[in-house]
């Protein structure tokens, strides 16, 4: 009998393996079970179609969903939040690509929303997952799923959600039960809607970051931020490189301290902690006092300062892939109607910040990164040649030049930017 690997005509092989008459066949049972696992989970093809490169409308749709959900955070009473299928599809695509997945879809069928994701594995194999979202008779959200061909019934999924919530709560995240956060869930031909009441500060991002790489130590962030505020109060400087030098001259050269320093820098120049400090941010700012000057420049531009610092903080907290993706989505959004246009200059500043944070957060390079940053000039943080890159491109102009952010032409441009940064930033 001719057989094939998981995802094709492989079930017959396992059946044959189990039932074919042989002496002491039960001795083969453990092996059959082990073979059955990939049969159930893996496939030769993705269940989700490859997503096309996002455009400005996709980014705008995803931002709309985020803005509505975010409005329900900290609300005194539940808020009605609705999202169309178009908006949910855009949010799924952007979220998937930020996580490194290009095969993600949000579908609707028979009164339920279906999130489909496909993860490529070795030897042309795929792990396909589906999450089914629908209301029960009381209007409560019920989530079931499927991993490969293995069904995951709602009771099992909700038990897993409760276990995950308990795990996160033990590590400091304030996450209420799903049934408290989402009620009156409904699905119709337009999209989904629900009453939502989310905690104003769940510390979710900081907890997840801590699980990933040990997290950001708030006392270190506070120490760096207060030191920068005091230095700026004594000697105000708009030069962004001065702030970087001040920051890393006082760092101890460890990976943990460098990570905290990048977050402190984002708070200083952009007023954001990228969601890491949650409830501790307000007391931190009160303890350090009012920031006397928040106008900084990099190569004569204030916008590049925020691109560099926020991208570095995001990379520190959530990884380079997430930070780079957020930067690209921002430029795609800017290329839409009324925006400032797609800027490769901004993108270069993003990638420079990511490059420094990525290496500065590695134990083997932390001290050399600190030493280099403690002496960095503006032209070290971003080459002057970057100012000659194209910017202000409308979506039509960007498409005429690059087609999309998935094109080889755009990838080649990004490689040239990265090559310049690699020569410039040496540590």
Quickly describe the structure.
The protein is of the alpha+beta class. The protein is built from 18 helices and nine strands. It folds into three domains: 11-43, no CATH class; 56-199, no CATH class; 206-424, no CATH class.
The DSSP helix count reads 18
Structural class: alpha+beta
Q: How many beta strands in the DSSP annotation?
A: 9
Q: Overall 3D geometry?
A: globular
Total individual domains: 3
Structural features, described:
The protein has 427 residues and is of the alpha+beta class. It has three domains: 11-43, no CATH class; 56-199, no CATH class; 206-424, no CATH class. Helices cover 52% and strands 13% of the residues. The strands form two sheets. Strands 1, 3, 4, 5, 6 and 7 form a six-stranded antiparallel sheet that branches. Helix 1 packs antiparallel against helix 2, helix 8 (218-234) packs parallel to helix 11 and helix 10 (255-270) runs antiparallel to helix 12. It is globular, with a radius of gyration of 25 Å.
């Amino acid at each position: 009998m001719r057989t094939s690997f998981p995802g094709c005509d492989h079930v017959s092989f396992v059946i044959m393996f189990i039932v074919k008459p042989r002496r002491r066949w039960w001795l083969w049972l453990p092996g059959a079970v082990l073979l059955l696992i990939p049969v159930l989970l893996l496939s030769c093809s993705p269940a989700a179609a490859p997503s096309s490169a996002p455009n400005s409308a996709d980014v705008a749709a995803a931002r709309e969903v985020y803005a509505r959900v975010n409005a329900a955070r900290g609300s005194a009473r539940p808020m009605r939040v609705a999202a169309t299928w178009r908006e949910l599809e855009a949010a799924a695509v952007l979220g998937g690509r930020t996580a490194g997945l290009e095969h993600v879809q949000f579908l609707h069928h028979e009164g339920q929303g279906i999130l489909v994701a496909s993860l490529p594995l070795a030897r042309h194999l795929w792990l396909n997952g589906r999450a089914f979202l629908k209301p029960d008779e009381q209007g409560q959200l019920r989530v079931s799923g499927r991993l490969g061909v293995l069904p995951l019934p709602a009771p099992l999924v909700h038990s897993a959600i409760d276990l995950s919530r308990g795990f996160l709560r033990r590590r400091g995240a304030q996450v209420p039960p799903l049934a408290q956060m989402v009620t009156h869930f409904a699905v119709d031909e337009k999209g989904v809607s629900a009453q939502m009441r989310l905690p104003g500060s769940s510390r979710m991002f900081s907890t997840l970051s801590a699980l990933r790489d040990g997290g950001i130590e708030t006392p270190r962030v506070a120490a760096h931020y207060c030191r920068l505020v005091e230095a700026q109060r004594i000697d105000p400087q708009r030069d962004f490189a001065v702030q970087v030098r001040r920051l890393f001259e006082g760092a101890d050269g460890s990976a943990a301290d460098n990570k905290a320093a990048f977050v402190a820098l984002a708070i200083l120049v952009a007023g954001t902690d990228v969601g890491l400090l949650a409830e501790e941010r307000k007391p931190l700012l009160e303890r350090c006092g009012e920031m006397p000057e928040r106008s900084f420049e990099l190569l004569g531009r204030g916008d590049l300062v925020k691109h560099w610092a926020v991208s570095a903080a995001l990379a520190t907290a959530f990884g380079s892939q997430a930070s780079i993706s957020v930067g690209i989505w921002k430029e795609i959004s800017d290329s839409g109607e009324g925006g400032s246009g797609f800027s490769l200059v901004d993108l270069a500043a993003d990638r420079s910040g990511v490059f420094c944070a990525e290496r500065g957060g590695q134990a083997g390079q932390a001290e050399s990164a600190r030493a280099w940053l403690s002496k960095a000039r503006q032209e070290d943080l971003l080459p002057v040649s970057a100012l000659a890159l194209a910017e202000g491109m409308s979506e039509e102009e960007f498409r005429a030049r690059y087609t999309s952010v998935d094109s080889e032409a755009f990838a080649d441009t990004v490689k040239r930017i990265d090559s310049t940064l690699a020569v410039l930033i040496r540590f």
